[in-house]
Amino acid sequence: MAQSEFNRQLIEFLDASPTPWHAVVSLAERLSSAGFSELKESGEWTLEPGRGYFICRNGSSIIAWRQPMAADLAANGWRLIGAHTDSPCLRVKPQPELHRKGYFQLGIEVYGGALLNPWFDRDLSLAGRVSWRDEAGQLHNSLIDFERPVAIIPSLAIHLDREANSSRNINAQTYLPALIGQGKQKPDFRELLREHMLNTGTEGVARVLDYELCFYDTQGAAEIGLNREFIASARLDNLLSCFIGLKSLMDADAGPGQVLVCNDHEEVGSMSASGAQGPMLKQWLERIMPDVHARNRALANSMLISADNAHGVHPNFSEKHDDNHGPLLNAGPVIKINANQRYASNSETSALFRHLAEEQGVAVQSFVVRSDMACGSTIGPITAAELGVKTLDIGVPQFAMHSIRELAGSQDAESLYRVLVPFLELKEI
Description:
Helices cover 29% and strands 27% of the residues. By secondary structure, the chain is an alpha/beta fold.
């Protein structure tokens, strides 16, 4: 696929996925269009070799796979790609209503390790999942997206905060309530949600009982730069990897067991029913391969590539990188290495990736954090520990990780895709 078409589809996916729930819907729609069938975890499964399937949990995590021949599975194992659907953001509190000086605001809770300064003065909308009751007393869950700007977090003028550019600390409780209107009466936020749902085609909403809602920037993803060298968007960490994994799975020729797993809650530790430190992937695997001996043989012949973006060396802050390990945008995917196992890469899994990349003519970079700085982590070590599977941590280099608007190279996503497709097709590990 041409890089321009790949990036067009990527941008379309990013704009359609303002929350983890919307991201999973976007993934599921594309899988269904490619012939994959959705299965329910609560139902019976009848699996046919060669066909594609997917399951969702909590509406925010998804596992998609192409079913292999049973006789070959134990001997050949699985080729897994892992990513995560969540991104740092601001979420609406359960009782968010604030009415101060005639302004209507919503209280927020910071989700994950967000960069907070970029959230000021942005045109914000709201999206997420709403749980509601109809007139007959039945409970329902629906996704909503206001789409248009409905909120903003205004900055304080420099005249009233002379130290803003030198020593400003952001108090999330007092500085970040979002401004959404003006009036003499304090509205009921749940009633506002109910009215919005009725006005946008959700019928029968008698009462909104609860919600999980995220603010997001309404500015869409875009290719930028004099020669369109970059892609700017919210949620590149880590919807970029979700999309690359999706395209790789859909476009790979049938081979051994091929799996894409996109978990929620990575940004807050992964410990949940649908997170990488939860049981979802293990329970799926036990259901696919109930025989423990065959399952353990398959895992011994398997490999996971955990795809999560890497820190590109910033031209204004190059001292934050080890001099020999500063990945450049548009210079290829990055193998992420940490001696203390914050990343799960080892020489065996790294060598395999380098070999595949060389065969595709794709350059490869390495990232190691400075020895005097702490290192982040991914779902790689967590999944490796849960399953006992060989693992590589890889990522596309980016700037502004965890900002409301991040930046990646326009060449790198398609470059990683070109390596992941032959990885999924490998007969042996």
